[in-house]
Amino acid sequence: MKYNILIGGAAGQGMNTITKLLSKALKRHGYYVFVNTVYMSRIRGGHNYFQIRFSDQPLHTHENSIDVLFALNQETLDLHQRRLKENGIIIADEDLKFDPKEFALPIKKISKAIGNKKAENMILLGGLIKLFNLDYDIFTDLVSKSIKKDLSSNKEALKQGYDSLKPKFLFIGKQRDDNMLINGNTAIGLGAIAAGLGVFSAYPMTPAASIMNYLTHQQKKMGIIVEQAEDEIAAIHIALGASSAGVRAMTASSGGGLSLMVEALGLTAITETPLVITDVMRPGPATGLPTKTGQGDLSFLLTASQDELPRMIIAPRDPEDAYYQTIRAFDLADKYQLPVIVLSDQYLADSQKTIPLLNTKVEINQYLSKDQAVELPYERYKITPSGVSPRLIPGLSEYPIIADNHEHDGFGKISEDPVNRTNMHLKRLQKLRSLEADLQEPHYFGDENPDIVLIGFGSTEGALIETIETYSGQKKIGALVFGDVYPLPTQKLIKYKDKILINVELNATGQFSRLIRMETGIHCTESILKFDGLQINAEDILEVLHEKF
Amino acid sequence: MKNFKVFNTENKISWCPGCGDYSILQALKEALFELDLQPNNTMIVSGIGQAAKTPQYVNANSFNSLHGRALPPALGIHMANPDLNIFVTSGDGDTYGEGGNHFIHNIRRNPNIVHLVYNNRIYGLTKGQSSPTTDLGMITSSQLDGHKTPPINPLTLALTLGAGFVARGYAHHRDHLKALIKAAYHYKGYAIIDIMQPCPSFNKKNTPEWYESNTYYLENHDEKDFNLAYNLATHVNEHIPLGILYRVEKNTFLERLDHIHTPLLKRQVQQKDLELLLDEFL
Ligand SMILES: Cc1ncc(C[n+]2csc(CCOP(=O)(O)OP(=O)(O)O)c2C)c(N)n1
Fold this sequence. Notes:
The structure holds 2 protein chains of 2 kinds. Chain A is α/β, with parallel strands linked by helices. In chain A, 37% of the residues lie in helices and 21% in strands.
């Protein structure tokens, strides 16, 4: 079984609340849940919607066609009715225009009778519980815990909605629930905390801001500092300062903020300071589409900075991956003393997925040296075969530690000597070679001997997995999904170099296929590119595949 | 070595002969020594410029940041390890121009940092363009028929933003400057000293002679009188007061973060606390 519910209305109509309640309740029933959010850059009004999918089988992405359309206003009906499946149903107030009206609810009448206009969402939710024959007690428990204001009238609304409909779908019994439900941004915040984050500094920008919101809520409990900086330039430099003094630090923004942070990538690299920077992508250029999704920052971040520098870019593929990759980003930043960029996007940021319980037992290693262990006189930037020098922390060492953003010698002393410059530049870039030992090859799904290999990175993984699962064409098919995108791991990729390679990306110029070509000389045969601000899914990809192959 | 020379480095100084920076450097090293600080518990942070080269000439921890970006990493270092004694040493362009936004917001934050601004009213490193403190009408390499935009006044700005320690020094009066640096160090919070400084190469107006005849030492001054301090700070071209214009106690950045009890550097994460974080997702 697999159902797709769309909840739509204007911002401020309480969709957020019922989406939260419903998705959590479904998870507690033991279902796999996937929730994605499509919203406009508005606080009130506009058209926003959530799609909740649930199933007894794992889910990886959203779906276009709808089983249940749950409309809080006419606009939702007008916009989404055409996506209804053949026997799909609509739940909405009886006074709105839609057809068939089998599941119309007297929402306005009930809310009037109860005397709480704000409880309309609860009436709808009540109806839905009955429709799917769900466990009413799970909902009342959640409602009691999460609704602070007018609890009794909200409960009454839930009850009356419940009593107004008849069951339509069969509830297939409670299964074991050992999952958690979390979105990408929260998983990044949680991962950072688990990795021992001490300082988070950022300037708010959609769709990255919810990382800061999450961390702000945890800062007292966890004894960390969350600083809202005056701008993104300050944000990254504050984090960098903290990290240089030995505390794990992170900043996060979207493309606009990353544009302002660029100068500090160079500073991070030349001072050989570890730093984790999260970019939650949205479409640009400039302000672009603030609340929509895309993968257009890849090329920019591959080379952004003065001159050349070692950096790593990791694109998490789902909330679980976002958590573990954030932890890994801190580890590798420390191990190689360089900037690591976590490249996420709005879709991953705001999509909730059921995932196995996260492991919080994290081994933290900052790869620091000790006074007794270093060769004297101590050279903070000593040239070594790996490019990584022994790191002491200012104040924890008897030696003063020098960080200088001019070209410098092993001691940190400014030097314009051409030989020193050449050696130092190569030393820093050497870290990219050393890092290869820690690279993770992409995930592969599908046929062992494929004709076609779809290639993607980051948050499109879900769409690619479902594509593989549901493709019904003649060819044998597989998908390669990269998490580490730079440096690019190439071993698996090379195995498939003679197949039909199709890059699937959310940008117009095929940035990832260009990276592959640059690093390996391998050309993708076809591309599936989408850059309208909405996430691609299996249906979109299959449409192209079935047409061409 | 029982004198300021513990703070000497062997690096060759690349300032012009007669530059005020020499004198500021010497005052700083002597102050560090007299404050009984050590190279490994002192942290000098700067941006880019002639003034900002100071860390290369002081034997201490240092973080030389980008142009305009001295204060943000200094704040980050302070968050991580408040036991480090942080001195920011940067020019007027670095602090009030490229780094202007950080200057403003650090005053609001009030971290425990000493800030020495080497104010030569000109861009030294890039060879004589005007700076945010260059006087109206002064001819510079970027304003050939005289600077057209009036200067900002960093100290009235600092005062109106709520700075709790506001002082003005003069580079060539080294002992007086040293005393200011020591007082700034003892102040709990953000302490700014705007140090007027001749630039023999590019500023032909504000010469040592000019400063000698236009400055005086503040005496019997009420350091808590805001209006008086503001008034005194407006004098940047004649009758310029040298000394601590304003000094009042304020809550510092870390005092306001009442959940931070131990330096972050020494913080231990409890496994139990991490596990509790998962509850809300179940
Ligand atoms: C992003 C950036 N822009 C411009 C410069 C060039 N630059 C270096 S120092 C400086 C101004 C120096 O003036 P000031 O801060 O007053 O210091 P001084 O040299 O006079 O001591 C400029 C414009 C730079 N290094 N980085």
